[in-house]
Hints:
By secondary structure, the protein is of the alpha/beta class. It folds into 2 domains: 10-251, Type I PLP-dependent aspartate aminotransferase-like (Major domain) (Aspartate Aminotransferase, domain 2), CATH 3.40.640.10; 255-383, Aspartate Aminotransferase, domain 1 (Alpha-Beta Complex), CATH 3.90.1150. The protein is built from 13 helices and 12 strands. α3 (83-94) packs across α7.
Amino acid sequence: MKNSSIKHKLDTKLIHAGEPRPGVLGAVSLPVFQSATYEYSGESTDYHDLRYIRLNNTPNHVALHQKLAALENAEDALVFASGMAAISTALLTVLRAGDHVILQNCLYGGTHDFATKDLPDYGIGHGFIDAERPETWEKALKPNTRALYVETISNPMMKVADLKALAAFAKKHGLVSMIDNTFASPVNFRPIEWGFDISLHSATKYLNGHTDIVAGAAIGSKAIIAKIKHKLDHLGGSLDPHACFLLHRGLKTLGVRVRRQNESAGKLAKFLARHRAVKSVNYPGLGQKNAAKFLDGFGGMLSFELKGGLAAARKFMRRVTLPVVAPSLGGVESLVTRPATTSHAGMTANERQALGITDSLVRVSVGLEDAGDLIADFDQALKR
């Protein structure tokens, strides 16, 4: 494989990091190695190093691991069968019975549900912090606190906390710092550079970018990724080689996709913020100081409230024509959804209300359509 430690720019790494050179039988694109098992020649006596599809070390896995690590300037990376497989496996690696984890209070609903409904079954406790109020963080600490878990851009309120301070807080108190970097992607933020221990992704979203696979990723030091791999080898959430191939292919256009989505989302957010039918808009690029301080771009995600409440939100979603009304995000097509009925449906109404996730909140994933066409479509839907 090519040396991913060479200090190339991110767009060059997207194309070349982790690629076998010379190519397999001269192939410019890495083929799909659709084999579950590999010939054993005595090269290893460690179970976790055996070449086997469930152990995430086929040629397709290895190339992805090297590329992902290079993108965030980390030592190692690991892919999973889904984003939740990455999140749950990582949490179960660093936590054990009797431990406690501190969580950002506004998280993806699946992560929130796993932490609050599943981890207690393993004897693991949890507490929440407002990531925007550093003066309150120490109150959440317990003698058995072992980890801190946050998001780069919170889902679905699009808030960016003092990320450097969060990583420093975790280090000061001997906590493993974990961050979901899905919304930002390596184009806009690279957590390891700011002191985080583990960067997590739903690779289904921006990393793949084409709404055709489910995958996850964890990125960090060789030591911590090795521990997560050992846990994953037993839990079995491995990524199929063909899905690896599609993720590998999608990654090569990540830079051009995300920068275009950054630009278009910014234009749409500003349009919505000025529209008389819109009550409020949540977007990192609308005056958030921490976003400007830490992010290289503000992302393709935004959410907003209409003055007419739930009835207006439902009408808007029926009338808009370009975005697809569907959950998920990060693809080439724009999507709209109400988090109360999709990503955060597992939370109680009171839990959602406390975080500002109303039944009428509309979340938008901006795709690669022409920004002017998107704005015109939103305008006609709002006017009607």
